[in-house]
Amino acid sequence: MAQILNYKNLLNTFVDESKAYSLDVKNRLSDLFLYHSMGAVEEVMSSRNFYSGAFGSSPGNLVGIPKKVISRVSTYYTTLKENISAETTSIQTQFNTCSPSEYEKLYVKNLLYDTLEQQLSETMAQTLKVVNSFRDSQNKVATTIDKLNFVTSDSYDGQYINPNGGRVVAFQLTGITSTTLVNSYISSTTYFNTYITNNVNTAFTKNYPGSEEYLFFSPLMYTNEVTLFTFSYRTQLKELLKYRKSTLYDNLLNNDPHGITGLSTSTKLRFKQKLNNIIIPWINYDTSLMTQRLTNNLEGGYETLEGVLNRYYSDFDVGYSINTGTTAENLVRINLRDKNIGISDSLFNFKILSQLYVS
């Protein structure tokens, strides 16, 4: 009687983990945008570690782990803090044209300082949440890809006889009977890879306006009064108003007749239109890209993926014989070892764990 290994469960694990990974990418990037800004998403996606390799015999893509995003955000923070001190931010530059008193200038400066500190913590926390989630879900799907790459490309499978190591059992797979498995695996990887390549990796070119001020301050500038502004993307604006806050906008226009814990009425009236002119490009940027990048790319792409990347119900039986030769055993042993310790490789196979951590 022929010896048979069934790979239906392994293929279904790949399908399930690919969907989970893609859904996580969609949800994390969407949340980062909704609660922060498109610029925050662009910073996460602009430079990444460990994102290219192979699914089976074909080139493949993953979103990858953000590279140097923490150091960039830290640099933006330092630059903006220095600009606040020098009163060279766009907010302070425009404010100073309104002939404010020294007390009012000090109020705005301290407000921007305090807001920046709060937003640094929030930005870092949100970014690390995305990074950690990407890392965990990527590690799961890449580990399954490693297994399937080895099985379908090398026609071997194997395991340690005992969990603590020792002799390796090498299963030499029957090439002819594994053809269906290979074809089905490649078919699934094509759907998964298309989503990542077309709907995620190429969708977030970094081009946000206002530099550091936009990145840290724009999520807190969404006053309900912006509905009175002239915007082309009003539906998107109404949606963002559910997630963004108006804290900084309200505080910048806080009225204090004495001009100490806020602005005098005359200064406020002069400054309000200038402040609106600053935030309009920020809001325009986020609302104009919302449908293109989120609705069409992330959400629409994932819906397509979910519809075509289906679980398998037929068995994928692959015949095998046990090869006790040194060559076969070493091939399996090295594969098992490298998946655990990692080596630098252009494939997803044999990951170095440090490549899954933010730099």
Walk me through this protein's architecture.
This protein is of the alpha+beta class. The chain has one domain (4-309, 319-341). The chain is built from eleven helices and eight strands. The protein has a four-stranded antiparallel sheet. A hairpin with a 2-residue loop joins strand 6 and strand 7. Helix 1 packs parallel to helix 6. The radius of gyration is 27 Å and the shape is elongated.
The tally of domains stands at 1
Global mean pLDDT: 89
Give the distance, in angstroms, between the N- and C-terminal Cα atoms.
Answer: 53 Å
Q: H/E order of the elements?
A: EHHEEEEHHHEEHHHHHEH
Overall 3D shape: elongated
Based on CA atoms alone, the radius of gyration comes out at: 27 Å
Order of strands, main sheet, comes to: 1-8-7-6
Q: Tell me about the biggest sheet?
A: 4 strands, antiparallel
Tell me the fraction of residues in β-strands, as a range: 5-15%
Number of strands: 8
Low-confidence stretches: none
Give me the secondary-structure category. alpha+beta
- How large is the count of helical segments? 11
Portion of residues in helices?
55-70%
List the keywords.
elongated; four-stranded antiparallel beta sheet; alpha+beta; 359 residues
Explain the layout of strands and helices:
Blueprint: E1 4-6, H1 8-35, H2 38-46, E2 48-49, E3 52-55, E4 58-61, E5 65-66, H3 69-86, H4 90-96, H5 102-154, E6 156-162, E7 165-173, H6 179-201, H7 211-217, H8 234-240, H9 247-252, H10 265-308, E8 317-323, H11 326-341
Helix pairs in contact: 1-2, 1-5, 1-6, 1-10, 3-5, 3-7, 4-10, 6-10, 8-10
